[in-house]
Specification:
Helix content: 25-40%
Structural class: alpha/beta
Strand order of the largest sheet: 1-7-6-5-4-2-3
Distance between the termini: 30 Å
Shape: globular
Number of domains: 2
Largest sheet: 7 strands, mixed
Number of strands: 11
CATH topology of the largest domain: Aspartate Aminotransferase, domain 2
Radius of gyration: 20 Å
């Protein structure tokens, strides 16, 4: 068996319950492009989780969910404001600019979270045709730094955005990890907190593929079916994306997976804190651990347990746990790291 590492929760396999669900719906013919009973059932489940006004559209990838979701509420002369660490800025190869035509404006943040005070520098020149017009503030929950916004922090951002006529977008690639960390249902820190557009991910938490673009207020999704088609994200056999969410929500499978990965991250962080010359740099609130490790030792350990460098200048690394991470994985990793630190 290939060794489980700490590079990314994307590297984990698919939860058996998800595979079982895919097998169970792989029978007979259903109408394509989302006009099937499984997609309809999944949409109803999202309404139960996020509110009855929720409109849901399934796409293949998280990048598509973010970019196309934002496309629905912007025009090419708008700007999108987000954290410098956001996937939207750092990991989507310019797709937001290419497909929305919008300017992406960033703010510096020490922990991945943004505040109105940080965003304020971009909130000017409204109704001035020489300046890109701010239209969307985008936050990530949980953040790329493994931190989690509180309900009040999200509500404050939403109120601030709405006071200027902007929308609040949430990149929820790891939204399940955030829900477990907060101990709250999804609706509490999304719809009820004022979020307008949500990218709801499951791939990093046990699913095979596919994300959901969720419009949480009426009227925002009127043209999205055309945007999705032009964005090359309309799945012909959509049941194989949507049916995964049926299993995902059944018996709170999402919570079981996310609870486990969060717990494994906390365990990993606790064991790393006891090692000399190793320092955890961020609060461990979800399934990510950010840690400074001497470069030489990190390089040796990477050959056995691959993980990514986050900041080469400071020798900071990102370690991600998954729904299938084991305590044995953590113990072996820590043992190897201690060994390499002694040698260096």
């Amino acid at each position: 068996m290939i060794k489980r590492g700490f590079a990314s929760d994307n590297n984990a396999g698919v939860h058996p319950e998800i595979l079982k669900e895919l097998g169970s719906i792989n029978k007979g013919h259903v109408i394509g492009y989302g006009s099937d009973i499984y997609t309809e059932q999944a949409k109803q489940l999202f309404k139960e989780q996020l509110g009855r006004d929720t409109e849901v559209f399934f796409v293949f990838t998280g990048t598509a969910a973010n970019v196309l979701g934002i496309s629905s509420v912007t025009r090419s002369w708008n700007s999108i404001i987000t954290a410098e660490t956001a996937h939207l800025e750092a990991d989507e190869c310019g797709a937001p600019e290419k497909f929305t035509g919008c300017k992406v404006l960033t703010v510096e943040t020490p922990d991945g979270k943004i505040t109105p005070e940080m965003v304020a520098k971009h909130m000017h020149s409204f109704d001035f045709e020489h300046h890109a017009q701010p239209k969307v503030i985008s936050l990530t929950q949980s953040t790329e730094m493994g931190t989690v916004y509180s309900v009040s922090e999200i509500r404050t951002l939403a109120d601030y955005a709405h006071s200027f006529g902007l929308y609040l977008h949430m990149d929820g690639a790891r939204i399940a990890n955030a829900a477990v960390s907060l101990g709250l249902p999804f609706i509490t820190f999304t719809t009820d907190a004022g979020v307008d557009v949500l990218s709801f991910g499951g791939t990093k938490n046990g699913m095979m593929m596919g994300e959901a673009v969720c419009f949480l207020k009426p009227g925002l999704s009127s043209d999205f079916k055309y945007i999705r088609k032009q964005g090359m994200q309309l799945a012909s056999k959509m049941r194989f994306i949507s049916a995964q969410y049926i299993a995902y929500f059944r018996n709170d499978l999402w919570k079981i997976c996310a609870t486990h990965s969060n717990t494994m991250a906390a365990t990993l962080a606790e064991k790393l804190k006891g090692i000399d010359n190793v320092r955890v740099t961020q609060k461990v609130q979800s399934n990510g651990v950010f840690v400074i490790i001497p470069k030489a030792a990190a390089g040796k350990v990477m050959k056995h347990y691959f993980f990514y460098s986050w900041n080469e200048t400071t020798s900071e690394y990102r370690l991600m746990t998954s729904w299938d991470t084991t305590e044995e994985d953590i113990d072996d990793f820590v043992k190897l790291l201690k060994k390499e630190l002694v040698h260096h």
